[in-house]
């Protein structure tokens, strides 16, 4: 990552911070701590979200081993998405109030409990509790704080930082799909979840020792802060809550705020159907389970490229056009599944679909910055994650229902295409990202909370 030496112009001058600042400089010489935060957050995305995203690997083994139907199995994933959606706004509130670190630590404990209980499941309703509730809570505790932390640590190069973060989010499931499939084949699905729960939780707890909520906690400014800008006054908890409340109210008065929630819903319905059902679709076509897992892994692996590139492009050229393009590229390739029957055809589909899938959701932090500027983003990301989680739940559950009703995945495939293209249409109706929508939101604060900092400008068209 780009380097930025720690120097007085980028730091807060306070004696109590000298020890922390020098300790950071010794451990990570020449690297701005923002990039360390991105690395930690990226691993959290990989470890915490990969089990959930690779859920499609579980459907066939659970069908064969436990005799459960695809609809009843996928209900566990749907419940996890619903729980994550319902709790996402609350996670945003908790993040703004207590900081990302405490919320993520809570998520680690739910991740551990969910994985261990899943490994002990003997009835399908056990899966609904362990996967649906425990891992759903964990998802809410990871997704919102991670995005909020990235937004806090970067003044410039946010697109690059978010790109790295989103690339990790795609790489994790790509690795996990193959790894989990191999573990299940070599051991059992129960043992696989116990191993993942223990090892993943230990690794994440270790990383939390190095995580910091805000640059000021280690005596730094956000990456790219102008040298002539005054250091913001550190707000007490009551002041922070007031700022977050006023910022949220200002955002919610815009149509764009609610459109982003709706867009996230449509996009997630579109790709949830694919990532959950592409393996069962391939197995129905005669592909063996391990090879079918490689389809999901390929899809996720290809998505890493556009997960990284889309935020970077959106940061420089504007997020609106970049996002609309990726929604179309996510939707249209799904039509290939009507004519896909051979293994190589499924892998070709995975490569083409992965391009649009990777870019579909990765620019949301960028368009938020371009529309709303630099404010307490936890609640905003929480509402959008609620839309995303609801979409994932609908896509995951309804595919199994249509299969039971019709005996095929044809209706499900059509729904996936329609949802992605509808999301693209909504994006095209949204305002330009060339100007902020709420440039004067701080005017609603009480006079003692109105900083004299430079407000950011929008980007692109």
TrEMBL record:
Domain annotation Major facilitator superfamily (MFS) profile: ranges: 34-435
Entry keywords, A to Z: Membrane, Transmembrane, Transmembrane helix
One Pfam family this sequence matches: MFS_1
Transmembrane residue ranges: 30-48, 68-91, 103-122, 128-150, 162-186, 192-211, 257-283, 289-310, 322-340, 346-367, 388-405, 411-430
UniProt cross-references to InterPro entries, sorted A to Z: MFS, MFS_dom, MFS_trans_sf, Proton-linked_MCT
PROSITE patterns: MFS
GO MF annotations, alphabetized: transmembrane transporter activity
Protein known as: Major facilitator superfamily (MFS) profile domain-containing protein
């Amino acid at each position: 990552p780009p380097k930025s030496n720690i120097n007085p112009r980028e730091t807060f001058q306070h004696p109590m911070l000298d020890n922390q600042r020098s300790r950071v400089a010794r451990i990570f010489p020449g690297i701005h701590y923002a990039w360390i935060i991105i690395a930690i957050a990226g691993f959290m995305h990989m470890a915490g979200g990969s089990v959930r995203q690779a859920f499609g690997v579980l459907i066939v083994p659970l069908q064969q081993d436990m005799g459960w139907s695809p609809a009843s199995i996928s209900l566990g994933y749907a419940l996890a998405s619903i729980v994550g959606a319902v709790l996402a706004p609350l996670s945003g509130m908790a993040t703004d109030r207590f900081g990302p670190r405490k919320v993520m630590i809570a998520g680690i404990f739910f991740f551990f409990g969910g994985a261990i209980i899943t490994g002990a499941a003997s009835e399908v309703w056990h899966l609904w509790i362990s996967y649906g509730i425990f891992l759903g809570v964990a998802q809410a505790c990871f997704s919102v704080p991670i995005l909020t932390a990235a937004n806090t640590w970067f003044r410039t190069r946010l697109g690059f930082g978010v790109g790295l973060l989103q690339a990790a989010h795609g790489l994790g499931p790509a690795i996990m799909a193959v790894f989990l499939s191999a573990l299940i084949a070599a051991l059992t699905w129960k043992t696989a979840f116990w191993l993942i729960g223990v090892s993943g939780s230990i690794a994440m707890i270790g990383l939390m020792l190095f995580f910091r909520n805000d640059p000021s906690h280690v005596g730094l400014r956000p990456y790219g802060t102008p040298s002539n800008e005054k250091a913001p006054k550190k707000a007490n908890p009551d002041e922070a809550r007031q700022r977050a409340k006023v910022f949220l109210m200002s955002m919610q008065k815009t149509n764009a705020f609610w459109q982003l929630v709706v867009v996230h819903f449509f996009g997630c319905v579109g790709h949830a159907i694919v990532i959950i059902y592409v393996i069962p679709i391939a197995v129905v076509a005669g592909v063996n389970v391990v090879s079918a897992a490689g389809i999901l892994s390929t899809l996720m692996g290809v998505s890493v490229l556009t997960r990284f590139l889309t935020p970077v492009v959106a940061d420089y050229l504007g997020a609106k056009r970049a996002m609309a393009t990726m929604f179309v590229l996510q939707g249209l390739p799904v039509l290939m599944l009507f004519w896909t029957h051979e293994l190589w055809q499924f892998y070709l589909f995975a490569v083409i679909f992965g391009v649009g899938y990777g870019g579909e959701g990765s620019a949301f932090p960028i368009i938020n910055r371009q529309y709303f500027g630099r404010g307490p983003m936890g609640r905003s990301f929480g509402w959008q994650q609620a839309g995303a989680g609801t979409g994932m739940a609908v896509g995951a559950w309804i595919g199994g229902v249509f299969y039971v009703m019709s005996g095929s995945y044809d209706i499900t495939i059509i729904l996936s295409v329609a949802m992605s293209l509808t999301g693209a249409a909504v994006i095209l109706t949204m305002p330009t990202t060339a100007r902020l929508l709420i440039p004067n939101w701080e005017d609603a604060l009480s006079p003692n909370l109105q900083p004299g900092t430079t407000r950011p400008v929008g980007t692109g068209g």
